[in-house]
Amino acid sequence: QVQLVESGGGLVQPGGSLRLSCAASGIILRIDDMGWYRQAPGKQRELVATISGGGGATYVDSVKGRFTISRYNAKNTVYLQMNSLKPEDTAVYLCNADTLARDGCYFGRKPLWGRGTQVTVSS
Predict the structure, then answer these.
(1) Spacing of C-alpha 46 from chain mean position
(2) Rounded to an integer, what distance in angstroms lies between the CA atom of residue 101 and that of residue 28?
(3) Alpha carbons 68 and 9: distance in angstroms, whole number
(4) pLDDT by residue (tens digit) across 41-74?
């Protein structure tokens, strides 16, 4: 089964740091764009950061200078380093990957979503 699994969330005080990880598993031939989204209670899902297969990154304005997205292709893993965290960063963080994979009898492009990891920024 092809899937994404996030880890690294938790409770942190304002100004603190967390590092999220998201690993893809299964029969995956290639991963193109990977990204992190977040969803706070009562709000729409928001794209936080993306990274291309070549390493090019984009960020939503509210996290620029504080968050860094990176990837380790050999382990099909994407990371989100979050520094100077603020209470408004509190949300469930989900990762996404655009893959070329085999899943059962299916072979082809397969967008994947993780189940999410909770990040809470509070004193």
Answers:
(1) 12
(2) 4
(3) 15
(4) 999 999 999 999 999 999 999 999 999 999 999 9
